[in-house]
Design goal:
- It comes from Aureococcus anophagefferens (Harmful bloom alga).
- InterPro entries: Acyl-CoA_hotdog (IPR042171), Acyl_CoA_thio (IPR003703), HotDog_dom_sf (IPR029069), TesB_ACOT8-like_N (IPR049449), TesB_C (IPR025652).
- This is Acyl-coenzyme A thioesterase.
- Belongs to the C/M/P thioester hydrolase family.
- By secondary structure, the protein is α+β, with helices and mostly antiparallel strands.
- It is 22% helix and 33% strand.
- It has a twelve-stranded antiparallel beta sheet with strand order 1-2-4-5-6-3-9-12-11-10-8-7.
- The chain is globular and about 55 Å long.
- The relative contact order is 0.14.
């Protein structure tokens, strides 16, 4: 009997190992695919083109457009890495049409360069970004540094693995998810691992504090290119952002019918792009919404490393409307 139990245990362990290996292989492929997808191709001097992926929303994901626009800007400013950008979304993008990017060089100084990037489809502008890029070699000899400290969680309390993944959180609520979104929320081979500390289930409609915190990291290594990590942060920074403004309103959620959410503007400041490595350790992101009024919601976010270093800050304003009674 002991031998049979030992054999059964080994079979179970081997099965779990094979499944984990397949999942690891899947996440590596998905991560590589994402990096390739966010890399635009040059079609002429200062002109680039990228393709879109349908994620289930029926329109281009804003994080994709921002990341591809940053790639286009970086390609015209070699040796520099973005330290801030502000983007505006004019119209929703179509996933079945390529995205055309044009880059205008506004300035090229010793330390800083400025670029304006415009995205269009079929000749119609849908997005614009103003970004500033910095040369790492032009850092001041005596930089001034300070930062408001991260009070919690302390490094000793930093336990992201104890928080369920987004897929683990969502799986019990699969029936409540719109069918097109299930491949995002339930995909174990996602290129990003997201662990939301204060998760709200699709079935929950009560009011709560307009703030969330989550751990995030890349599921597989991508190298140490600082510009790439900045672009990947821009990509994931659009996830779960404006929906934070819905949390204090009872009966309203981004899963409910008749709720309209759309990004108007989105900006990111990279305080420590030199330390940003999304594939090495989890990053803590904190969202909070200080205001919503006149059909618009405003949300800010901060991205922290495990040691409490503030890596980046972001802010987003978006359309927040209830089109019909629940």
């Amino acid at each position: 009997m002991a031998r049979l139990m030992t054999g059964a245990a080994k079979q179970t362990q081997n099965l779990v190992t094979r499944r984990a290996a397949r999942q690891l292989t899947g996440t590596a492929k998905q991560t590589q695919s994402l990096v390739k997808h966010l890399t635009v191709r040059e079609v002429a001097a200062g002109r680039f083109q990228g393709n879109s992926v349908e994620l289930g929303w029926g329109r281009v994901y804003g994080g994709q457009t921002m990341s591809q626009a940053l790639d286009a800007a970086h390609r015209t400013a070699p040796g520099r890495v973005v330290h801030s950008f502000q983007a505006y979304f004019y119209r929703p993008g179509r996933t079945d049409e390529p995205m055309d990017f044009s880059v205008e060089a506004l300035s090229d100084g010793r330390a800083l360069a400025c670029r304006r990037v415009t995205a269009s489809q079929k000749g119609v502008d849908i997005f614009s970004m103003l970004c500033s890029l910095q040369s790492a070699s032009a850092a001041p000899a005596r930089p001034l540094e300070h930062q408001r400290p991260l009070t919690a969680p302390a490094p000793d309390d930093w336990r992201p693995e104890a928080v369920p993944t987004l897929q683990e959180r969502m799986r019990p609520h699969e029936a409540l998810l719109p069918t097109p979104l299930r491949k995002i929320y339930l995909n174990d081979a996602s290129p990003f691992v997201l662990r939301q500390r204060d998760f709200t289930a699709p079935s929950e409609t009560g009011a709560s504090e307009p703030a969330t915190s989550s751990y995030l990291k890349l599921a597989a290594p991508v190298g140490d290119d600082a510009a790439l990590h900045a672009r990947l942060l821009a990509y994931i920074s659009d996830w779960g952002f404006i929906s934070t403004a819905l949390r204090p309103h009872e009966g309203i959620s981004n899963y409910a019918r008749g709720v309209q959410l759309a990004t108007i503007s989105h900006g990111v400041t990279y305080h420590r792009a030199d330390l940003l490595r999304l594939d090495e350790d989890y990053v803590l992101v904190r969202h909070r919404s200080p205001s919503a009024s006149q059909g618009r919601g405003f949300v800010v976010a901060e991205f922290f490393a495990r040691d409490g270093t503030l890596l980046a800050s972001a802010q987003q304003e978006g359309v927040v409307r209830v089109l019909m009674d629940k």
